[in-house]
Design a protein that fits this description.
270 residues; 17% strand; 2 domains; alpha/beta
Length: 270
């Protein structure tokens, strides 16, 4: 369909100095091509083709020269680590804001969603130094006013205390606080733990990001907190509640190049 094809063109190529089409502009453009069509019909065609020029999704291309090597190392841990070895994903959820809504929400009613006061009062921020157990689905850690190499080492100590025996794997991203001399020294002193890095700009390979996303959606996004202490209490309450019903994520990512790894088959996009 010609309308669909034109909708996928850059508007500037057609002489419209804007970044994306509106239905009215696209209608004007296709009518200039001697296509007799109304804006309403243009809108129906776009909806039928699932084309949404007004929307965009952001993505970040990893420039890590060792992307495949690091990615496959992490995936081997997820898929191949022996069942008697621990698999932990660690990260910091920074900038959790204790925002208090100036006025209470108005509750949902039939035909009307919850209404929220736009203005808020800031009471500071906290960081969750988090650890996610891939096998059990449990999320734990501690809350801190900041995050640096010392707090990351404290998190490593907590993980080590929670899993006092057995070998294990710890997956992290490339944050500078994860590669300091203090961290390197900690792993040298705790050889039963093996450190694995996700590729740069590919922290989505770290399953704790999924757990953090759940925390953001269930507690932080719509919460109102009168102090950092109240935010701390709410996060702790969520962690207890979550861990009582925890289940591991159904991790299914298998890139096409996985077929190059012995014993694996290709069943996903690269």
């Amino acid at each position: 369909m010609r309308v669909e094809a034109e909708a996928c063109r850059d508007p500037s190529d057609a002489g419209f100095e804007v970044t994306h089409w509106s239905i009215a502009l696209l209608g004007e453009h296709v009518r200039s091509m001697q296509i007799d069509i109304s804006d309403a019909s243009v809108g129906r065609i776009l909806r039928g083709a699932l084309l949404q020029p007004h929307r965009q999704k952001m993505w970040l291309n990893s420039q890590d020269d060792e992307f495949r090597q690091k990615r496959d190392d992490v995936l081997r841990v997820y898929y191949e680590a022996p069942q008697d070895e621990h698999t932990l994903c660690l990260d910091e959820k920074t900038g959790m804001q204790a925002l208090e809504r100036r006025y209470p929400d108005l509750p949902m009613q039939p035909g009307m969603p919850v209404r929220r006061e736009f203005e808020y009062i800031r009471h500071g921020t906290l960081t969750l130094m988090g650890a996610y157990d891939v096998r059990s689905g449990k999320l734990f850690g501690f809350l801190s006013d900041g995050h640096d190499s010392d707090t990351f080492v404290q998190l490593l100590e907590q993980v080590d205390a929670c899993y006092p025996t057995g070998r294990g794997h710890i997956i992290v991203d490339n944050l500078s606080t994860h590669t300091t001399d203090e961290v390197v020294e900690w792993f040298e002193e705790h050889p039963r733990w093996t450190l694995h890095f996700t590729p740069k700009h590919a922290s989505w390979l770290n399953q704790i990001e999924c757990a953090f996303s759940d925390l953001q959606r269930c507690v932080l996004a719509r919460g109102s907190f009168r102090s950092k202490d109240e935010l701390r209490d709410k996060v702790h309450a969520y962690l207890w509640w979550h861990n009582e019903r925890a289940e591991p994520f159904e991790w299914t990512y298998r890139p096409a190049s996985w077929s190059a790894i012995p014993g694996k088959t290709s069943d996903g996009p690269d």
